[in-house]
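Sequence and structure are no longer studied apart. As an example, we show below a sequence and the C-alpha cells encoding its fold:
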Amino acid sequence: MIIRPGDTGVRRAGKLTSIHTVEDMTMSTLYTQTHLGALTLQNHLVMAPMTRCRALENIPNALMAEYYAQRGSAGLIVTEGVSPSPNGLGYPRIPGLFSAAQVEGWQLITDAVHAKGAKIFAQMMHCGRIAHPLNLPAGARMIAPSAVAAAGEMYTDTEGMKPHPVPQAMSAEDIEATVGEFVQAAENAVAAGFDGVELHSANGYLLEQFIRPNTNQRTDGYGGPIENRARFVLEVAEGVIGAIGKDKVGIRLSPFGVFNDMPVYDTMAADYTYLAQKLDACGLVYIHLVDHEAMGGPPVPDDIKATFRRLFKRTLILSGGYDAARAESDLAEGKCDLIAVGRPFLANPDLVNRWKTGAAVNQPDMDTFYTPGSNGYTDYPVLNG
C-alpha cells in the first residue's frame, strides 16, 4: 500500500486507518469490509452501472428487484442510469425517479438489495442529445447544451434504428429547471431507500455534454473556458449535496472517453484536473473514473488517474476491464479505494464468490443486454445453484 506524503496511516475508501505491517499489506483486501463515507461496505467491489432496459413504461419492477438482489454480494451497487426527468429518457425502457410510481418501484429494489447486505446508489443519468423523440413520453423534449446532433443512431422500439436528431439548445430557464430536477430526483432516491446517488457525468450524456467543447458551443456563462463549461455540473452537484448531504453523492467521469461522439481534445487533461479540484472542494463522497480501453476506447492515462488520486481527498473508484488479480493489485498499490466491475457482474450474480474461490466465470450474452424479459438478465447460473 502506498502511503502518500503527509499521511499518517493507510487510506481505505477515503479514510485513514492505522499503519499495517508489510506482511499485512500484502494480504487480500478486495473481500474485506471498508467504508464509504458513513456507510460500511461488506467488501471493496462495486457493481458498476449498466443500462439494461427492463423498466417497462419507465417504472422499476419486480424483475429488476430480482436482478439487483441476485448481485447483492457486492459491497456497493450502482444502478443503471435513472432519469431525473421525462426529458432525460433517451433510451427505450430505462427507469426514472420523477414519479410516485417510480419511487414505489425502486423501494422494492432497495429493500431487496439491503436484505443481501449490499449498499445501493441510484445513478442519475439525463441522456441529453443521446435520445430520440420516439423514446420520450408526450410533452418531453430533447435538450442539450447546444443544438449539435450526435453522430450515429438510436434504437427505438417502434421504428428500430433512427439517426440522432438535433436537440434543442437549453435556455437559461431550462438549465435552472434541470438542476431542480436532479435535486428532486435525489430526494426521491432517498425516499425510495437508496443510500445515495451517482451523478452520471460520463459517456457522452448531458452533464458531460456541458463539459466537452464539441457539444457545448454556448457563448453565455455556461460555455467557453472550462470554468464555464463545468458550471452546470458543479451546480447540479452542489444542489444535490445541499438536498441530501455530501456522504450520499458521488459522480462518474470519463476523461479521454470517446463514447457517444465525444472526441479527445487538446486541453482535456487540464480540464479534468480543474474538475478534480472543484469536485474535491464540493466534498462529494466519491469520484468514479471509467476507462474504456478494455472495450476498444482510448486508455485513461495513468497520470490522469494519479492526478485524481492526489487532488481528490475522499473515495476514488476505478473501473474498466478489471479481473480479480488486477483489482487486488491496484488496491494494494493504493491507486484507488474501490474497484467497479460491470460485465462480469452482469453475467455472474455470484461474482464475489467466484473470484474469491477462483471458480470459472460465465461469459455475458451481448444479444440480451437490452432486451425485455428475464432471458440474459436473471437466468445466469450461480455456483451450486
Observations:
- Confidence is low (pLDDT under 50) at residues 1-26.
- The chain is about 30% helix and 15% strand.
- The first helix runs from residue 22 to 25.
